[in-house]
């Protein structure tokens, strides 16, 4: 089983990423269930604006799209900014919009029989809103969202410390992330054993 984590931090490599640090704990849990995990740091790529799979010369999205199609599990990891997903996360979802019109050999949307979850960090409130926005978009595209397929970390509304600079709340975020990983893996296995059919015409 293969999983893909798309880190939608605004910080280019090699800057430390709080979102990457929390994602690492979920990645470890996924690997503990036998999953192979790829990680994409979207801000490091040239993801052109648009809603097509390939926006032309220099567009790095087609390679990410290939990774999406190779993975049974997707996690979108985003910081919270102004109570919303990062602009990078929004760009990723916009590029995934093209998948709505893509089908497999059995005329199923290509996101069918794949599962997805969301991971959020931030020093302000709004994690549940970000989870809802991203989960809603992924469900529209065709992903299955298992129960409790998310984790997050923040220390309440307003400015505050970052995940990498404050140990408070880590235990809850990590244990919730382990549950998230387990639910994603087991839901993916269930869909693999009994896949969704193509939508009725």
UniProtKB/TrEMBL annotation:
Residue ranges crossing the lipid bilayer per the database entry: none
Superkingdom of source: Bacteria
UniProt cross-references to InterPro entries, sorted A to Z: Flavoprotein-like_sf (IPR029039), FMN_Rdtase-like_dom (IPR005025)
Domain NADPH-dependent FMN reductase-like: from-to ranges: 1-130
Protein name according to UniProt: Flavodoxin family protein
Source species: Streptomyces hyderabadensis
